[in-house]
Amino acid sequence: RARNNVHDEL
Amino acid sequence: MNIFRLVADLLHLASIFILLLKIQQTKSCAGVSLKTQALYFVVFVTRYLDLFTHFYSVYNSLMKLFFIASSAYIVYLMWKPYRPTYSASTDTFRAEFLIVGAALLGLAFPDSWHILDILWSFSIYLEAVAILPQLFQMTRTGEAETITSHYVFALGAYRALYLMNWIYRYYTEGYMDVIAWVAGAVQTILYADFFYIYLTRVMRGRLFSLP
Fold first, then answer.
1. Contact indicator for B152, B194 with CB cutoff of 8 Å
2. Are the beta carbons of B67 and A3 separated by less than 8 Å?
């Protein structure tokens, strides 16, 4: 993953 | 996906269509804050850079593309073809303070030190306050066209539903996102006054006008 945290919300 | 989030996203979409309808029907962007619209464009561009790094779902990607494209289009409409109708003299909130403040917060409290997460955090903080120029403009003029107040109401309702979505997700998935929660709560609180005036006046068929 490119980022630590995945933000699945808009 | 849950019902709160889905309806919230759809209200967000609806708010944009309401705004485009207002501009097209009245052939004017009077009473619409260009600063707020430009801030939303910055919010979407800085938040949705993960379009290039992450794939969540077709729904997610299409919504992101729509929000970026529609906010760019609205800024374009206000900047070029409808420029003569823009009420610049009442759109005087100092938006640069909001950008600087959100940038400082993003650097002080980023989601992580990855560049995309810093930009994501910045966009969350900026979105929380991006409506302020619009609310300020409505306060300054003392009233707004009914359709403009529908637009702001749809946006506020979208935010309120996101709060319910987070409560639901916390209990069903153990989902936590403190940055989004705090910024989202602040954002929703900013609409409190507006909601009150909207519900007591506009819903009764009167113009949005301050008491």
1. yes
2. no
Cβ contact A7–B177 (<8 Å): yes
- Give the separation between CA B104 and CA B107, rounded to whole angstroms: 5
Nearest to A10 among B63, B114, B117 (CB): B63
Cα angle vertex A2, ends B63, B117, to 5°?
Answer: 65
- Report the alpha-carbon angle B90-B190-B113, nearest 5: 105
The per-residue pLDDT for range B74-102, each reduced to its tens digit, is: 999 999 999 999 999 999 999 999 999 99
pLDDT digits (tens, 9 = 90+) for B153-200: 999 999 999 999 999 999 999 999 999 999 999 999 999 999 999 999
> Taking CA atoms, what residue in A is nearest to B12?
A10
Question: Residues B87, B144, B157, B66: is their CA dihedral positive or negative?
Answer: negative
Cβ atoms of residues B160 and B115 within 8 Å: no
